[in-house]
Design brief:
The chain has 2 domains: about 160 residues, 3-Layer(aba) Sandwich (Rossmann fold), CATH 3.40.50.720; about 100 residues, ProC C-terminal domain-like (ProC C-terminal domain-like fold). The protein contains 11 helices and 8 strands. It has an 8-stranded mixed β-sheet, sandwiched between helices. Helix 5 links the parallel strand 5 and strand 6. The longest helix is centred in the middle third of the chain and has 28 residues. Its EC number is 1.5.1.2. Belongs to the pyrroline-5-carboxylate reductase family. GO terms for molecular function: pyrroline-5-carboxylate reductase activity. Catalyzes the reduction of 1-pyrroline-5-carboxylate (PCA) to L-proline.
Length: about 270
């Protein structure tokens, strides 16, 4: 797939911004010299400059020379960034993409102009290996704008378009969810140690088992309970273990954690205004 939309500016080139830049180039969506990376300290982008990416600390200049602008700073840095780039934003030219937690399309349009097309994208840290689950949403972007954003993030994983009011929920389920599943894998490996395995073997076994479970659902397009039924036999060891976990609140604690993370995610930007 070849990019026909012009130069892409990634403002705030941290982990997510750099992972997306790498994915776009690796997939041949565009070449490195089609991407401008910004950061306060250019020293931290020296390696990317050697790879052919354009780098600068001037956000306004980066916006002027681009057609797609990706906002990838911390929530508490956003207001300053928007004030810096607002004079350079042209609603006829620019598509704004925000990967900042808890920031609505309206929050951005208030500062940049009501006519500026804004799309929110919420990837997770698996973006670094091209396995992100990214949710996208907008309240004013065109179908073509949404297609452009979906194609960009499909270079680093899977994409689902959702209603914007569900974006904080997506943050909890997909972004925070990485940590939840990692903690479950960690707990499984600790259980493995307790029943006799060395720590490194137990972790490897738990990781591959979790990966296999996820791939079963993805490749069979099936429901977890359908796959669970294949493993559980009457009076067997699997159902005994599952029931013990449920008696101790396994599912309910995970559900409660996701709900609380969603509440917290919705207030990240507002707390820092």
């Amino acid at each position: 797939m070849e990019n026909t939309t012009g130069t892409i500016a990634i403002l705030g080139s941290g982990n997510i911004g750099l992972s997306l830049a790498n994915g776009l180039v690796k997939s041949n969506y565009c070449t490195a010299d089609n991407i401008v990376l910004t950061r306060r300290s250019l020293f931290q982008l020296s390696a990317k400059a050697k790879e052919g990416f354009r780098v600068t600390s001037d956000n306004a200049e980066a916006v002027k020379g681009s057609s797609i602008v990706i906002l990838a700073v911390l929530p508490q840095q956003l207001n300053g960034l928007l004030a810096e780039i607002a004079p350079s934003v042209n609603p006829e030219k620019h598509l704004i993409i925000s990967v900042i937690s808890g920031v609505s399309c309206r929050d951005i349009k208030v500062k940049l102009g009501e006519d500026v097309p804004v799309v929110r994208a919420m990837p997770n840290t698996a973006i670094s290996i091209g396995q992100s689950m990214t949710c996208i949403a907008s309240d004013n972007a065109s179908y073509l704008n949404m297609e452009t954003v979906a194609e960009m993030f499909e270079t680093v994983g899977s994409v689902v378009q959702i209603n914007e009011e569900l974006m904080t929920s997506a943050t909890a389920l997909c972004a925070c969810g990485i940590a939840f599943f990692l903690r479950a894998i960690r707990a499984a490996s600790q259980g493995g140690v307790e029943i006799g395995f060395h720590a490194e073997d137990a972790l490897k076994m738990a990781v591959q088992t979790a990966k296999g479970a996820a791939d079963l659902l993805l490749q069979h397009n099936s429901h977890p309970e359908h796959e669970i039924d294949k493993v559980t036999s009457p009076k067997g060891c699997t159902i005994a273990g599952l029931n013990e976990m449920e008696h101790n609140g396994f599912s309910s604690s995970l559900i409660k954690g996701i709900k609380l993370s969603s509440i917290k995610a919705g207030g990240l930007y507002n707390e820092d205004k």
